[in-house]
Amino acid sequence: MNKSIIKDVEVKVIELPLKKQWKIALYAAKTRGHAVVKIITNHGVIGYGEASPSPAFMGETADTIKLVIDKYLKPALIGLNAFDVDLIHERMNLAIYGNYAAKSTIDIALYDIMGKALGVPAYKLLGGKYRSEIELSWVVGMQDLEGSIQEAKEKLAQGYKTLKVKVGNTPQIDYNLVKGIREAVGKDVPIRLDANQGYDYKTAVEVFRRIEEFGLESIEQPVRRWDIEGMKYVKEHLKTPIMADESVSSLHDVYRIIKERAADIVNIKVGKVGGLTIAKKIADALEISGLTGTAGSNLEVGIGSAASIHFVASSKTVNMPNDLLLGGPLHEYDLIKNQFEINDGKVICSDKPGLGIEVDESIFK
Fold this sequence. Notes:
alpha/beta; Enolase-like, domain 1; TIM Barrel; 13 strands; racemase and epimerase activity; Enolase_C-like; metal-binding; magnesium ion binding; Muconate cycloisomerase
């Protein structure tokens, strides 16, 4: 069964409605486009992958993913063994530069195939299970202060232990927001801020130096993705650990973060960096360098979220609370039939073969 030859690749674009507007410093949206890939092998084993990038965040969309896979990646994949993941990544990179979200969908589907072919969960193929339970964090998107406080309280009551708050508005709005949430939830709840590139490096230091009085777990992507020197400047002038997200969109991006010591933490998003194969390589690079990681969300629903769960379950270095399950609760609908097992703010990694999910096949009809 390990000669699982790729016979066909299908891609479906699905626009899913969000329960309410999702807003960050880069964009606002009421729906989200999801690209779902289905890879079929000569043995009839089927693997699924998913990505849901926003154009402002990653430069890709569900529609561009379909175009790239249909025109460039599918022809390069037909006839290859699904187990030859490094070779497949090389062929994909030769077929087209970048487009890491598109490549992520393929890579995720490969692990679903391999796991099903061998009868083992995906985490077994990623180094085995390091942790069974994965601690979750909840992300409070941009909205008015009252709404932010109410959402924070609701999620803590549901069992979440860590809050991530979207900032990058204006200095005073951000100050009032964090102050209001901290006063509402108490001094013991870890609060992580995410500016999504909202500030230049000098303003970031001024803003967050004030906000540090409220006690912060970390500050994510305070400056533009390309401004590695600016991120390093912020890191050197604040007490709070700095996290890179948009600045690490591929395996090679993490090298500069490590070389410049520009961040303390990296948010590794499986659907952003090229899939599980690349996410594991980034996690290994962090471990070698003494940095740590977390796994975030691009608002993927069930398929992409399952991949992230297996990644964190198998990765020692990814040891901070993760907002990898953000997409499902924010959408009106999901693409899988089974539900993730969540207990006291932690999600349990499935032991079923592959990604351990049951995809709603009707989406391909």
